[in-house]
Amino acid sequence: MNTLLKDVFGVFKFAEGLYAGIRKVLVPPKAYSWQTFIYLSVFSWVLSYCATGYIKDIIAFFGWLFLIAGTAWYTTEDPLRVPGTFMPVGAVITGFLVSVFAFGNQQDVITPRTIVFWPTISALITAIPEFIEGNDTDAKARIPKPEDRQRIIILVASSMLLSCWIQFYFVMDNWLRQYPSLQADTFKRSTFVVRTEQPVKIPKNGVVILEKLQPIVVEQIAQTSWSEVEKWLLDAKQRVGSLGKEIIEKNLSKYEEKELWRVEPRVANTKSGYILDLLSIWTGPSSNPRGYYLKKSCRIEPVAAANSSGNKITVAEIECDRLSKFIPGAPPPQQ
């Protein structure tokens, strides 16, 4: 019975201690405290949710200010340092909130600029107290000691360098999304880009161009009289080039690299007919100074057929390669 009473009292004592701890965090010891700022920020966001127009934005603005002030106050009361630096973890948290407030928006709270400026803002927040002396009611500006200046410069400079590398990541990511054909290139000679995935063997957009172009060319040539086909081939450069521009504009419209592709034909005679090579040529940056292109060959030969009147005529038969070929180097000259 005594053991049971001890266990019950122990549970009550634990609950009482837990309640005291929660109360200490949630109930401000005085009106001027970090909890007050946090509650004001929550209150401001609730009001902004009910408001409309520019009043909503003004209230939300003050809500952010209260949240940043409360978080900064709480995290600097007993600062925990980032290992190897004198930067408080609270400055990192406050820097993130400031960056979100400054560079976020309603659609995307966290944007690339939010992440890029985060380290630099955190370093500046860490450095600001070094230029102020005194307490909350009596503070004045001061110049840090020489030994303090050195560590401030190192911290801010290294944080700015980290921001630059993060920005470089976003720039590279944007390039590879807007110019996906770059992924088919090699980065072996690069001193700052390391490939972490399997390289793309053939640029997808170059293949798309030829895959969309082939059926149109086949439709215009197949079962057409041989004389008309020969006229078509004499004007192939203009016809294929025009079709290629339409295909690129339609299928690559969401990529910036659409301006770096062009389409050209190459026509060659054979004993039995013609070879029509459809080329999608990459004119953008490449590790190969001569660039590269993709090719799909079509064989065009005359065959006998009967027209609607039953008379025999000569028409064209066309057969194209199933897959496109990736060829490093400059395309062959036009004949």
Average pLDDT for all residues: 79
SSE order, one letter for each helix or strand: HHHHHEEHHHHEEEEE
Q: Roughly how much helix do the residues carry, as a percent range?
A: 40-55%
Rg = 35 Å
Shape: elongated
Residue stretches low in confidence (pLDDT < 50, at least 5 long) are: none
Q: What structural class do you assign from the helix and strand content?
A: alpha+beta
Q: Give the percentage of residues in beta strands.
A: 15-25%
Distance between the termini: 106 Å
Describe the main β-sheet briefly: 5 strands, antiparallel
**How many β strands by DSSP?**
7
Number of DSSP helical runs: 9
Core attributes:
single chain, 7 strands, two-stranded antiparallel sheet, five-stranded antiparallel β-sheet, 52% helix, elongated, alpha+beta, 335 residues
State the gist of this model.
With 335 residues, the protein is an alpha+beta fold.
Describe the secondary-structure layout.
Blueprint: H1 2-26, H2 34-50, H3 53-77, H4 89-103, H5 112-127, E1 132-134, E2 139-141, H6 146-178, H7 204-221, H8 226-234, H9 236-251, E3 261-269, E4 274-282, E5 292-306, E6 312-320, E7 325-328
Antiparallel strand pairs: 1-2, 3-4, 4-5, 5-6, 5-7
Helix pairs in contact: 2-3, 3-4, 4-5, 5-6, 7-9
Please tell me about this protein's structure.
It is built from nine helices and seven strands; from the N terminus they run αααααββααααβββββ. The protein is α+β, with helices and mostly antiparallel strands and 335 residues long. The strands form two sheets. Strands 3, 4, 5, 6 and 7 form a five-stranded antiparallel sheet that branches. A two-stranded antiparallel sheet has the order 1-2. The longest helix has 33 residues, at 146-178. The model has no long low-confidence stretch (mean pLDDT 79).
